[in-house]
Amino acid sequence: MDRRTFVGAASAVAGAVAGAVAGAGALGVLRPRSALGAPYRAGRVVPSKAQAAWQRRERAIFLHFGVNTFTGKEWGEGKEDPAIFNPAALDARQWVRAAKQAGFSSVVLTAKHHDGFCLWPSAATTHSVASSPFRGGRGDVVREFTDACRAEGVGAGLYLSPWDRHEPSYGDTPRYNDFYERQLTELLTTYGPLTEVWFDGANGEGPNGRRQQYDWPRVHATVRRLQPNALMFSDAGPDIRWIGNERGVAGDPNWCTVDPAAVPYPGADGPQIISALQHGDPMGAVWRPGEADVSIRPGWFWRESEDAKVRSVDNLEQLYYSSVGRNANLLLNVPPSTQGLLGDPDVRALTGFGERIAATFALDVAAGALVTATQGGSTAKAAADLDPDSAWFAGAAVSEASIEFALNGPVRFDVLELREPIATFGQTIESHEIAARADGAWMVIARGTTIGNKRLHRIEPLTADAVRVTVRSTVGELRVSRLGLYARPR
Ligand code: FUL
Question: Domains of the chain, with CATH numbers?
Fold first, then answer.
């Protein structure tokens, strides 16, 4: 609906990478450049502790809620009467429980969307819940939401739209920036620890006809000062980057590192920017993993007319593989209704999705395999344990090597999981291939580019008694922390 519907050239890049893989050199050769031509990175770029923990959480729920829920609009105009906001049965515990039961460990709420209506009683404006009939004008949705998150042990995140179509000072740059700072400070100091603060890049003109210039350095410094453990999301980070589309599809390849100059500010547009967001950059100087935001419904806000268009469990599962399975986090929007509750179709799909993922990953059929490697054999078994930090290390100066898992007899699987020990060593693998032995014959069953935190391949169900992962090229030291083999429930 906005510039973000633009789609980058992901498939062209993936095609070029696949072509180059065929030319990779002999095992164990030290190259000043990776097989695909990237120079080795001099120093390791690694995540902060908070970023690494966030990547392990992998799934969050987005809650778009506000006056648009009651008007059916996607972008409110800022003229909505607060009297329309009256979610009679609001229960934030229901939102958070549904998220948690489906395996999502944090939730992000739109405290203010582009229409400017605040879900908390902001002292900076009267355009808020305080002017609505909700709880007799004494309600605070942000408070109920953060309390529910704390009670359920789920991380709480907030979205504060910088674009504000209600606020008269919008467009009068210094005045609005002070107003925004006040609102941000209220959110950061009133509701306890936040895991994520979400910044959209939408930018418009104010009533004075002038375009507002946001003061991002000031915004970032305020969040760091008041919530040092919260991660900031935007197109331009600084901690988490937008993945470049709202379809839940990460790029292939997808690096956690980026060149900070490639996306200069939130809302910057153009094919090169979208491509930088989709793919990251193996040589990037900063760690900024991608988050794929996508809605369970056609729109971001709830509409009864779209009840029949809620994504199916199969569709949600597909999104999981195209986001988490490609080294990005999934931020799935499930918007509350006018009642202030997640609707039945949404909860059914969400629950079914959670069950599908839990059932798929409940049993690793590679567990207990005998593990050998062409190089670094003494560390090979670390790729079979569940510790994401212990890893097979192929050895200094090795950028191509294989690891083989002799399984406990023939086993059936259709999902492959690979991980790198990113928390300590960052991300280096640029291309890989997986082969399996069935009835005595080896065949290639998957090829891929980057791995990072998690790489999942879905294949046709196969029964095999050995699996071999070959890393074809890297941009640094070669480490794999995990191979898992799973079967989707039938
Ligand atoms: C966009 C906004 O314009 C949409 O309304 C939505 O909030 C989405 C997550 O970000 O840029």
Answer: 12-33+42-360 (3.20.20.80), 370-486 (2.60.120.260)
